Amino acid sequence: MNKKTSDLFERLNNKYRLVIMNDTSLEEKLSFRLSRLNVYIVFSTLCVLLVALTVAMIVFTPLKLYIPGYQDVGLRRDAIDLASRMDSTVNVVESNGKWVETVQAILAGNPEALANFDSLEEAPGSKQDSGYDSVDLSVISKEDSILRKEMEVAETYELFSDRKKEQTQISDLFFTKPVNGVLSDTFNIQTEHFGIDLVAGEKEPIKSVLDGMVILNEWSTETGYIIGVQHEYNLISFYKHNSVLLKKVGTFVKAGDAIAIIGGSGELSDGPHLHFELWYNQSPVNPIDYILFED
User: Fold this and answer.
1) Does residue 155 surpass a pLDDT of 90?
2) Residue 256's Cα: distance from chain center in Å?
3) Residue 155 · residue 73 · CB < 8 Å
4) Which of helix, strand or coil describes residue 230?
5) E strands along 8-155, which residues?
């Protein structure tokens, strides 16, 4: 087996010379010293680069929109809605045009136009038809039913759809611990201590308790480096006394993402710790009621 392997490597490393000559004068123009292994490596590298370039063009350019099934569901729904509005607008314009023609015929003294006037009042697109309060499901076309099913299936994969069921109770949410630490001070609204204090190790990362958007990244003399995250359901979390802030305003973070490093910055801090606040509907709430800090 070793002899076969060595023979294979020897054949791959055998040197060959590629010479380019002038066909008329037989003058040597270029020459290359090659081996089978060198040619294989060059062609393999070119293939990898070509694949990488193709993938990059698809991922980072609008070409991906031409891939079947990649189109944004929201964009498709908007296009269907616009097409429906256009059809309705055309029907209204045609109905109004017929109504104007009938009125002109009546004013011109044509009594036969009066026979069509009542039917135009009840035509599709008229005022009487625009405020219906029921739909006859028995007259829905087969194409319309197929389209409805396609849209329903597509929308099941929209994780952040506005039509998803809203959670109105804060107790229904699952929070991530902002830091693995020991509780040193509790929530007390009478003393205006609107959060809790957690002591943890040096350089411990501070994590976002829920998915959200960073809305605050600043320094104050009292609480040092502060970062605030806006979550869904009118929830805001604040993380104070940090040594370093890792996220900028406008950055989307997921639950568990590191957003700061624990510290003791600010005049109100007596040592490295995290002061964590949770606000719901513009009012502070006790984080201990919703987050399990002790394992």
Assistant:
1) no
2) 18
3) yes
4) strand
5) 15-21, 28-35
